[in-house]
Amino acid sequence: MGRLVGVDLARALAVFGMYVVHIGPPLSATSGVAGWIRYLADGHSSVLFATLAGFSLMLIAGRREPKTGLAGRQARARIAIRAVVLLALGTALAVEYGGVIILGFYGVYFLLALPLVRLSARTLAIVAAGIALVMPQLAFVMTSLLSPSVQESINAYDPLCRLSGVGMLDLLLTGFYPALTWMSFVIAGMALGCLDLSCGTVRWRLAAFGAVLTVAAYGMSLLLAGPGALRSMAEDGPSSSGSGSMPSGGGSLPDMPASSLLSAGPHSGTTFDIIGSVGIAILVIVGATVAMERLPRLRRLVRPVIAVGTMSLTAYVGHFLAQSALSVPAGTGTQQSWVPLLMFIFGVTLFAALWSRFFCRGPLEYLLNAATKPAKHIR
């Protein structure tokens, strides 16, 4: 598929951001540069993952020239199979380890994105913007009208909810990564996937656009909501970020007053949060792409890190297994030391570097690719 090294580097950074949130010290125990790293990882790592997931969908669908006819049907079948596998894997991990696993949400994102894979970059950008501007307010109204008794009645007939505690209502509306609002990130990533990131003009325009989105969203939120507009939910208790295990029981919007729709803190799910987070994701992806092209020595130096990005699913699932084996708390923000985090980063980087010397795909990436092979028989 002609991997973009910069995209793999961005994906590795998202993996490390997830590790920062789930294994590193809580935000309240950090300060200075460490505090900024912890704050940026909170929420933004999962957003970066979702944006890159949209980019990956377009790699399968044909990127700048979407596949049509038989090839198009097979590509869409591959995406659908991946969606089902990720939904099943996310549910299995939630059953085993508890909490909310983002893989199940990814499965829903992929299914919802299927009708959009043949759209142009401009159309995808317009759709993503429309969702960002409208859906947070709609989600707030819907969750406000959805009483606990109605939610319980819906969940009682939901096999996913009975299995893992995360049902379709959570996946679509009330969870930590609800598709109703998070599709903005996926579709924005799909739009990026349609663009030629090897073109300098495209990259500079994207960098300027990402900077404008970031400054405008967070600046407007600060202006309207005051100094606490960018407050992270992680300051109030268990981690609310990353891309790993979250406490079950719904996302942020159902518990927010209407005035919180003006905030832009990580995982607040507001219009300002979505627009600002997309801007940051664009800057990271473009910055990583430019760095890998313009700085060949750096590219050689970070090759082991790039390898982590090529097997992010393995790194993601593997951190659950490692946390369980080593009895490291997951998703609770109880670690007071950076040592466990550094050990996990070093371990996954060493594993990825060694594995990539002998295999072109990570272990779970290989299995996921094998699962999609039946799509080749579609006519």
Could you explain the architecture of this structure?
- The protein is mainly alpha-helical.
- It is built from 16 helices and no strands.
- The longest helix is centred in the first third of the chain and has 30 residues, at 32-61.
Which labels suit this protein?
mainly alpha; 16 helices
Helix count equals 16
Binned strand content:
under 5%
Structural class: mainly alpha
Order of helices and strands: HHHHHHHHHHHHHHHH
Low-confidence parts lasting 5 or more residues at pLDDT below 50? Answer: 236-254
Instruction: State the separation between the terminal residues, measured CA to CA.
Output: 22 Å
Number of strands: 0
Radius of gyration: 20 Å
Characterize the largest beta sheet: strand count, sense, and whether it forms a barrel: none
Helix content: 55-70%
Round the mean pLDDT to the nearest integer and report it.
Answer: 86
Q: Name the shape in a single word.
A: globular
Ordered list of secondary-structure elements with their pairings:
Elements: H1 5-23, H2 32-61, H3 69-97, H4 102-113, H5 121-145, H6 148-156, H7 159-164, H8 168-174, H9 179-193, H10 200-225, H11 271-294, H12 296-301, H13 303-310, H14 312-326, H15 339-356, H16 363-371
Helix pairs in contact: 1-2, 1-11, 1-13, 1-14, 1-15, 2-4, 2-9, 2-11, 3-4, 4-9, 5-9, 5-11, 9-11, 10-11, 13-15
Quick overview of this protein structure:
With 379 residues, the protein is mainly alpha-helical.
